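Issue: copy button drops trailing tokens. Both records pasted manually instead:
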Amino acid sequence: RGMSCTRALLHTPQRATPRALDVHRRISFVRTRVRVRATPTPTPTPPDADACALASPWRFEGTKRLYGAERFAALERAHVLVIGLGGVGSWAVEALARSGIGALTLADLDDVCETNVNRQVAALTSTVGMSKAHVLAKRVRDINPDCDVRIVEDFVQGWNVEAIVERGEGARRAAADDADEDEDVSGAWRRPDYVLDAIDKERDKAAIVAYCVHARVPLCVTGGAGGLDSLQDVRADDLSSTTFNRLASMTRKTLRKDYNFPKDTEGPTFPGGKKSAAKKARKSSKWGVKCVYAPENQNVFKTAGTKGRGGIGCDGVGGSAVFVTGAIGFKAASEIALDLMQEKTSSSSNYGPATTGWRSRVWPSTATVAVDGSSNTVEGIPHDIVSSTNVTETDELIDSNETAKGLEPSKRDASQPTSANLAAAAKLDAEEIFDAHCHWHLDGDQKVVRELCARLAGACMTTTRPGDWNDALAIREGDQPVNVPVALGVHPWWAHLEKESKDAWMTRLRDAVTSVPSCVVGEIGLDKVAVPPDADADYENQLDCFARQFALATELKKPVVVHCVKATGDMQRMFREAPDLPPRIYMHSFGGSSEFLRQLTTMKKYGDRFYFGFSSVINLRSPKTQDIIRTTPDDRLLLESDLCDPMRAEYELRIMLAFIADVKGWSVNDAARITRENANRFYGE
């Protein structure tokens, strides 16, 4: 007792001189090696569970020595929720697990992609295609079997952040064996002592920040890492005063615009911006939200590579380096661990939502709209979604005193439907809604997809490449077949993967479109923004793939579903130069200008063939969506979710439906009827 590990192992005399001690150690070590080699190999025996248990306390002995037993005990008691398991979040999980955190909840719906290998700890050749949450949960258990590790396989957003943070909705204890079922542990949920937000979408990031600030849950957010080519400096500042980081800047703007966060902060401006005299005179007011980030003005190579926007997607937009993402993740883990050990987190006086001051106003009340005046459930929508769909969801709603009647849409925030129409949309029967464009077949659970299709008035399964054509067609089959239209085609994002086999898949496409009822061509198109992650950008190939498929739709007189991003000039030229056009053309999640829309709808002979779809996940990000919807002819307006996840689709459809009703001055019922009739007309034979 009290001996060092080395002395105890070698039984070295306490009174030996330093030189004699060193010699004795080396001699003993050599003799030990000789004796071991001379001893016959014993018969293998099963591992001793007690011996393994005895080894467990040594895992974090170095951490205990560094911080002391009392501070380490604080880490063992802590529960940390990590949202986003990518290039930053995965390394933070690694550091937190190796620091002895007692409970970790890992939230992400994404799978490991081959393009993740350059920056994410979970990405290996053996894990490509596997759930990031599952892979990291298994790794954490291997690091520390005593850690209570749980997973939430979902994207955390405005509509579900409260349910996940407060009730652990969807939390499961990942099965140790891949063949076993995960264990539902949401009933035994403990509110996290700290939340780490490592996602790269400013809208969702803002919702997480707003809720945690309102609920007084300690939070650390990370800035963008895309486009940073070297590790110069990693900072930890209050989110209100970060500098030279686009993701942090956009999140801050969203919080001030949509969540009533105070503007009286004295943060430096972004490069090129000038600080006004009024801003210089303001007193600093911190938000209490720690942000770990690297400045984006320190790149070594000023012109090489792709420019990042903070995010790093699988489509290759924004390059990345592991020493940048890893360093940010480690720094975030360090800030969290130190705060936990210094007890800068929850206390009895700070537990629960803020009731006074600006923090009490950044997240709405928990009142819900009832269908019959007493119940807070809506047929076809989960309870938690109903609660957030009505007057509780700040990511989508505005002040509850506003009403749709008599409201000038241009005077409101473009991304926020009125609560009156949202309440009406929540009550609407699902059978009134037609989703004109979705990718639910990619989710994998055909039973869930069929059930949703059967509830709705209709939905079009829109494919992206030959590999998922059969999955979409399979939705129409099975024990309970559903009659939904299907769009078959090659998306511009994946055109580079189908370049060498164009003739083969074009033949297959022709056969399928002519033989399958209610089958159209799509999703096809042009995209100058997306860059292939594993190949050079090949826009000429996109043009060729689009031209072939568009010509086929024209020849067969089949409707076509079109994707267009930053390519309106080429798209319009092809439309005008074509000798003929398909009978109906659907510009999905239309993000072009009102002028481009007018040019299409006023084309001689063909103007009445163009339809325009709008989705909440894409179009409500843009302030110009109001004017575009207002310009869209009533009989050519379509409603879509544009989602792979069927569990979120109905919620997003109702949000967009309420917004359309606002802009057009319709009732929600009329908006549903008109968009449904338009969809039936578009997909009709």
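Record 2 (pasted manually too):
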Amino acid sequence: LRLLQRTPIVGKRAPQPTQTPSQLATAVASLRVRPGTVRARSSAASDVKVEGSETQMAPDPKLVAMRAAMRAAGVDAFIVPSQDPHFSEYVPTCFERRMFISGFTGSAGTALVTHDAALLWTDGRYFLQAEQELGPEWTLMRGGQPGVPEPSKWLADKMAKGSKVGVDPAVHSLSEARALRSALEAAGSALVTLDVNPVDTVWDADRPAFPTAPLRVHKAEFSGKSVADKVNFIRSKLDENKSDVLVVSPLDEVAWLFNVRGGDLDYNPVTLGYGLVSKDEACLYVDVGKVTNEVSAHLDEAGVVVKPYDECAGDMRAAAAAGKTLWIDADKVSVALVEAAEEAAAAAGPAEKKAKTEDEDAKKTIKEGVSPIPLAKAVKNEAELAGMLEAHLRDGVAMASFWCWLDEQAAQGKEWDEYEIGEWVSKFRAEQPGFSEESFATIAGEGPHGAIIHYRASVESARKVGPDSLLLCDSGGQYDCGTTDVTRTHHLGTPTDHQKNAYTRVLQGHIGLTTAVFPQDTSGFVLDAFARRHLWEAGLDYRHGTGHGVGAALNVHEGPQSISPRFGNMTGLVPGMILSNEPGYYEDGGFGIRIENLLVVREAKTSHNFGDKKYLTFDYLTHIPIQKKLIDFSLMSGAEVAWLNQYHAVVWEKVSPRVTEEKVKAWLKEACAPVTVKTVVIG
């Protein structure tokens, strides 16, 4: 542990411990517990004593060992987020520290351990799960509920003045750590960055190894741009930004820049790696054992140097010591990398720093700003769009096969549970060429489970899906050419009038957004009301955004574009962007409805171009039928019915030639058959 030799970014380093890491590991070895040896208890039992018994529960060995490590490091509290060093949505098992120390297996949460408390924050999706999984020493903090403070607020209110709160700088972004530091300093406490994560000291030899999935080349026919072209683009942006080196940390940005894909994370085809691009060098930092001969030749051709994953920080130090300006995104680059660069610049001394100029920005070691990669990645080229369409046509075959099978099972009176439904969805996708994995865990919610927006069935929680079920199924696939994400709500029996009314209003919102025409650079929040209008007319709504960006054979959730009622995202929409269109309605304890297609932004053909602006609209990528049984056609306008018929005609035209099984083709033909609505004029 080192004492910082400069004004700290987030606080200060802890003082040198009295024991070396190896001595500390030996000291806590007897306290360590292997994963799974302590049965999780409901958090409700944390303050419960057995009547008439003085026997107390044995303390959690993991917490005992962790607190020993914290004392040795000189900190009074330690924060354990769910994040990896790249702030990924899904993290490799070797970075699941919060899961290990708390026993809580949900995907979202933050643990906080002090010498006399252990707390776990999560959101409403996981309250029940956390209650079941947390041990008796843990307190569940129900995030977002009245009276429940955020971790920084809790620390500021509860910790004594002069307390030191430790963090692992590798898993906290610069902006996140600054905000935490500010809250703590205002309360008289300090934020301290540690070189050794106390959780790792406890985990030790039981910690899973880093993933080793090999890299693969993302073919030019799907990428549309060479690595050399992308590197040259970055270099032009470096000139514009008066910077010398761009630091690339998010894994999907690394994969996009170097036209490679990997398998280190569930659902996202990426690899653990960093990128540094300067005016004369481009480096990929990755486990070199993952680099196949094909990938090596691919990178050599573009002039990319491959270096070990752990050398990125050292090269940032060298660049900073040489007086280079490093461009970083404060929301996406870790404190550890920034500290490495700033410490090296401070140690180099004035003689090695850049000569003074009138441009003060040019003298900075760290220049903060949004990376140019997210927007470039979000605007797909024609090759990427063609690959995405191909992926969705393959997906159309898979999902037609699935829905045909499920309707057949229901007609025979057979039942399957929600967990098994997810397995079947994956099975049908796996039959398609180029499929590698799901793009996220399938959400299959029957009846009241459909009302849980991010529900994920387990073997224990799964409800039966049978002849009279209303099923919400949100799923997606990763293919060699693209990424899919689709939701359909399907009734296997006879829907109620209320279900049909709600479903139809959701469909009308879906159509309203798909057919919207708007000026180029319109922000997504401006369009959100198109999807909600018909629900609002009935006093209904939904509590989530309407659309997110989607990567091309990359992460199913990407930015910067979105469609949401929140006004914070001002990113303007431009041709080539892909977004989901997923309005819904959820009735707690009853049912859930969502209809989701992926859309691509295209230029609209308008009779005028007021203000010499381009006007835009959407085209759909998803080619899967929308169930007509659930529609109340008395609510639909003629234009809306015409859109539905046209959509189904295109689905049939493009998907049916790919279907080889006759019963699936017959199902698809019926599902895509046009609807005729008779209008009766009275008077």
